[in-house]
Amino acid sequence: MKDQIVTHINDPKYLEKLYRTNKSQFKQAFNELYPELKGNTVADFWDERLNYESEAVNWGTGKELVFVIIASLVAGLIAKLPALLSINEDFFYQRNIGFIVFPALTAYFAWKNKLSTGKIAFIACATLAGVIFINYLPNVKTSDTLILSCIHLVLFLGSILCFSFVGDYKNIEDKRLGFLKYLGDLVVMTGLIGIAGGIMTALTINLFLLIGIHIEKFYFDYIGIFGLCAAPLVATYLIQTNPQLVGKISPVIAKLFSPLVLVMLVVYLVAIIYSAKNPYNDREFLLIFNALLVGVMALIFFSVAETSKETKNSTQIWILFLLSIVTIIVNGVAFSAIIFRIINWGVTPNRAAVLGSNALILINLLLVTVQLFKTTQRKVNISAVGKTIAYYLPIYLIWAIIVTFVFPFLFGFK
């Protein structure tokens, strides 16, 4: 989209048409280009138009509201299928938790981006393949491959959502980075909606208790579950129609938590040396260690997505660079621990999955760290870091497909 804006900067009609195809993406691309276009009459007009901060919340069009309401109801009905069709809840939710919200979000972006019939058919077929595959896996309660498949299926569905969000192959690296930013904004906005919903739930239940009516079961079974399913959809809708709502919160969170996590990791690594915990022999500790690694890596990626618009923020870049180095050390410890366990106790589905994931994360972190170092030396722009992350994302999709669809057969459904 950047190339189109630059090429047609003096064509107001074309810019207006481009803006209406994807308003949030247009705004992001234009704001990144504006320092170079400043002084151009049309560019200055668009800067005022796009960055005017209205105090009112934009509720979008009536069609968008209807779509979100219907999608929320459908997601809620999917979540209630075990009660409606007498399906075992453990069986259903373990395998189908990702299908409650992800298809609705994917449909929203497919509709908003006006994807072609071929792309919509591809999305539908990929989602249907996931539904059929995961629900026809043998119901072995002690199966590690089943659990791994269910976990990585969520990543697979997230990749389909990314495909729907990106829409086309023009400026794909910017759109993938925009998807990471969207995920961060989604967590923030969904969390705020969840807090508000929790307060409303507590007030409602206790008000009815005051008059002697117990509505807890009914409320949680119907209103609560529909509300939980609707929260990510409503959050997405608000992010797309009112980017200013989280446009200032997300960068603050990224800037605030990056240095705090850096300090925490350094202290944590030192504490490990003086503690009795050993990731080489303690399985649970190794699992928590890996969960910590994934969380920190997500924070780095989210921070890069937010910082990519601020090319002169050298302090934040240095913090991200140091955080990446410390995270590589954490990954190195986890990686060596899983290799140690494989050498001593053999290959299992869990160890193979963790080994592959750690290897992919380590390579990604090394690539990102190199680009961050170059950025600190002013050899490249911070956008180069974002492009490195964006180009690498399909590798995670390939790994998710392997673990989800190949591991059960590779390890005999064990």
Automatic annotation (TrEMBL):
Keywords: Membrane, Transmembrane, Transmembrane helix
Transmembrane parts of this sequence: 65-85, 92-111, 117-138, 145-166, 186-211, 218-240, 252-273, 285-305, 317-340, 352-373, 393-413
Statement: the UniProt record of this protein carries the keyword Membrane: yes
Domain of life: Bacteria
UniProt KW Membrane keyword: yes
Name by which UniProt lists this protein: DUF4153 domain-containing protein
Organism: Pedobacter planticolens
